[in-house]
Design brief:
Blueprint (H helix, E strand, L loop, with lengths): L2 H76 L1
Length: 79
């Protein structure tokens, strides 16, 4: 193989190596951005979960109060 051909191949491989390096850098930045967004979404989901737990608690308490009041109404109407 001639020296010119070897040089051409090495230059080609160097160019590919640079492009792969640039691609890795770009992908790392994108993955970092996606990771940041996912962390924010996870935080928001935890907050929504806590809020739903509180709402569920209030609903159950309200349901118990309604049942108790209904029993009182039934008792008063039965007299």
């Amino acid at each position: 193989m001639s020296t010119d051909r070897t040089t051409e191949i090495l230059n080609y491989l160097s160019a590919i190596s640079r492009e792969v390096g640039e691609l890795r850098t770009e992908m790392n930045a994108r993955f970092s951005e996606v990771n940041t967004r996912l962390e924010r979404i996870e935080r928001e989901l935890r907050q929504h979960g806590r809020r739903l737990d509180r709402i569920e608690s209030l609903v159950l308490t309200t349901r118990s109060d309604i049942d108790e009041l209904q029993e009182r109404v039934d008792a008063l109407e039965g007299k």
